[in-house]
Amino acid sequence: MSHDHSIDPKNMPKDPSKATTEGKHKFMGLWIFLGGETVLFACLFGTYLALKDSAAGGPTTQELYGLGLVFLMTVLLLTSSLTSVYAIYHMKNNDFKKMQLWMGITALLGLAFLACEIYEFAHYIHDYGFTFRSSAFGSAFYTLVGFHGGHVVFGLSWIITLMVRNAKRGLDLYNAPKFNTFALYWHFIDVVWVFIFTVVYLMGMVS
Amino acid sequence: MGMTSAQKSGFGATLWDWLTTVDHKKIGILYLAGGGFFFLLGGLEAVIIRIQLISPENNFISAGLYNEMITMHGTTMIFLAAMPILLGLMNFIMPLQIGARDVAFPFLNSLGFWLFLFGGLLLNLSWFTGAPDAGWTNYAPLSIQSPGHGIDFYIMGLQLSGAGTLMGGINFIVTIVLMRAPGMTYMRMPLFTWTTFVASILILFAFPALTVGLFLMMFDRMFGSAFFDAALGGNAIIWQHLFWIFGHPEVYILILPVFGVFSEVFPTFAKKRLFGYTAMVFATFLIAFLGFMVWAHHMFTVGLGPVANSIFAVATMAIAVPTGIKIFNWLFTLWGGSIKINTAMLWSLAFIPSFTIGGMTGVMLASAVADYQYHDTYFVIGHFHYVIVGGTVFGILAGLHYWWPKMFGRYLHEGLGQLSFWTFFVGFHLTFFIQHFLGLMGMPRRYWVFLENQGLDTGNLISTIGAFFMSFGVIVFLINIIYTTIKGKKASGDAWGSGRTLEWAISSPPVHYNFKQLPLVRGLDPLWIEKTEGNKKVTPAEPLDEIHMPNGSILPFIMTIGFTIASYGFIYQTESKYWLIAVYAGMAIALISMLIRSLKDDHGHHISKEELERVGD
Ligand code: HEM
Ligand SMILES: [Cu+2]
């Protein structure tokens, strides 16, 4: 078993992220971890559904939610998932420059999403007095959506660190799995958002 | 790195070695030591509870302290004693059984251990300022109302150690899926490896529910949210659901691994292959699957309605079926075997009737209508101690006696072992059998005192006497450990002479890379196969070549320190915002360690072929 973490593009295998045992372990480890994350979000969704109508005299779901902004957020995040797919595509072909470019776009889209979310929260707090403490509904809303937002923040710090750290040395068998696991994680965040969009916002506006 | 630090000597170097180790065997030993320490602590708490209940209207400890005692006893035993000791056995043994040199994520393995340890220490720090007092189940709104910081220590302590456990679970799953030796197909895996695998899946899917519950509790107590506050529309039942969605799978996390232990011990000492291997594997999965469908049997009296109660009652009773399959398979394994009785075997044999009684009372409790009578009485205490002590603790002790020679290279003393077994075994039944009847007579659980002349006096006295017997057994076991460490008989690789699985094919204790050459697995019970063919060693699957091993690291320890400081800050920032400094400082320490881990490449090290040839076997 030789562990030559080659950076010579000629020696790089087709999919560098899964060429080493470490790479395979990481990828599968993240899949398993996402299984646990699914339960975590399922519990948060359950809590939210149980408390969404407990507004305690404060604003209700219909009064609060507006489609425009969340639609924009959905588009931003879905697109960022797509751009991360492009990035991984270029990684598999050992094209580091293009991978960095698409990862960069992914991060920018993520940042834009985050900005919208912060604006949304600020809007609820200032214009409606709807806070984390105002009702059980408020607690459940900010916790569920906030946990997702926290995941976005973590994902962004992760990818930015990776991009900066490896900017000079390019792709090798040691760091390729890291980019790959990030992409998987990012897709998961995206899927969770689709559920938030549906369960929280869409269902909140019709009910 | 691993080599150089092993060659250095002196206390400092040894300490550094243990703080930085990523060797699954050393981490296993750390888990055993940490879990053992908390087991003694929890045991002490239990004895104090029993002394308080030795006679009617006793005044040994105050009512408030009593509440703290029962809360800490339950929490400590489940989260800090039983589970970590099991994780210790899994860590040490499972990689050996599948013919691997380490786990998939050695770094994470170390982090998981330190998180568990410091979570436990943090929780116990609460003794100095007031421990949690709302029961190990920590029901809202009682837990929300509880003054002081006891409950906050519960929240942060369990959050830390729970995160550690989750990491352990993920690690084991990936290890078993990706790191089995050549030829080790799934259906050739030893049962202990199987149950480790399935228990890890349970950890993976159960612990996040606890994580969420603890977060909601934390937000309510520390940041003024209203999840459990009825005045603002909150709902206290949500805590119960989240707790038991975690909690019932948790009891199977505690029992499945020891089912694996017994499935190793019986074949070894009956010199027969395990009866019904395939059925055992599928029963394990069935138990795990059903284990997620039954949580509301802890909530029959909450008022979920007759439909929900009936569904959960039937699902609960169904678990008795795969459990029964296992009991019969163990009996058939023994049937006609050439049985050798020793301490490991005694614990295993004692498990069968004890655990079966616990299973039977479980089915009684599962009858929702009858549970209105049993619920929150000593009957439930009797039930779960029969399954947890008669199952998990007996299994842990069987496993320790069985694998001690493998882990430490010396046999535990037989005479002392049997003395501790008999006293503990008798004490156990004295303590808990009578509790069923106390419960049926109406003695509620978690009450500080009982009144005299209600037919409860003698039963409680007997129960306490039993607890003294058990304590005596534990002390003898401790003496045995000390004696063995100093003077114990040395063990060979195949310590019992009738080992069947791969861990017995290597030296006792194993070298740090476990297998010089990865073994070729040619069937179920690979060592046994080789022995029946007259081979002294397992056929290697690869030529001798250099071995790649991970490097040790202090980062997991530092990260944990950071998280612990932050947790402490969270607990006290409700009093003064200056404590937020601790939160930020702790988080900064943890995040910077993560960053270092991410930025600094770590390719591990190689053990050269020449060096391996020098070592011999
Ligand atoms: C045939 C298998 C089992 C059945 C049918 C069963 C059923 C039940 C039921 C219905 C309760 C709730 C009683 C009440 O609160 O009124 C209960 C409590 C409990 N069971 Fe079991 N059980 C089984 C096996 C186990 C096992 C294997 C363990 C652990 C290793 C376990 C640990 C517990 C614990 C800790 C509690 C009490 C929790 C508390 O309220 O503090 N059970 N069981
Ligand atoms: Cu249960």
Averaged pLDDT of chain B:
96
| Distance linking N and C termini of chain B | 22 Å
How many helical stretches of chain A? 6
CATH topology of chain A: Four Helix Bundle (Hemerythrin (Met), subunit A)
Mean pLDDT of chain A: 92
CATH homologous group name of chain A: Cytochrome c oxidase, subunit III, four-helix bundle
Instruction: Write down the secondary-structure element order of chain B.
Output: HHHHHHHHHHHHHHHHHEHHEH
**Domain module tally of chain A:** 1
- Which regions of chain B are unreliable across 5 or more consecutive residues at pLDDT < 50? 1-6
Q: Tell me the Rg of chain A in angstroms.
A: 20 Å
Shape, principal axes of CA atoms of chain B: globular
Q: Give the bound compounds.
A: protoporphyrin IX containing FE, copper (II) ion
* Major β-sheet annotation of chain B: 2 strands, antiparallel
Largest sheet of chain A: none
Structural class of chain B: mainly alpha
- The percent range for helix content of chain B is 55-70%
**Under the CATH scheme, which architecture of chain A would be assigned?**
Up-down Bundle
Arrangement of strands in the largest sheet of chain B:
1-2
Strand content of chain B: under 5%
